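Deliverable D2.4 — example input (structure tokens):
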């Protein structure tokens, strides 16, 4: 039977912040098999009637380590 796949999503306006978040996450899980990654840049409004700001979204599909 196939192992379950997990998804982790990182989102911020700064690429260096996302890089730090991903590195901390990878350090925390030890090891995993990264199956796919996807990166999207979009505009997001933080509040209603507020201007939009660029936002980077990184999605990682992975298989957790076997116990």
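Example output (designed residues):
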């Amino acid at each position: 039977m196939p192992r379950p796949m997990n998804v982790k999503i990182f989102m911020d306006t700064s690429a260096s912040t996302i890089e730090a978040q991903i590195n901390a996450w990878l350090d925390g899980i030890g090891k995993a098999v990264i199956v796919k990654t996807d990166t999207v840049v979009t505009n997001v409004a933080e509040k209603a009637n507020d201007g939009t700001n660029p936002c980077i979204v990184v999605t990682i599909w992975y298989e957790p380590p076997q116990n």
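The radius of gyration is 15 Å.
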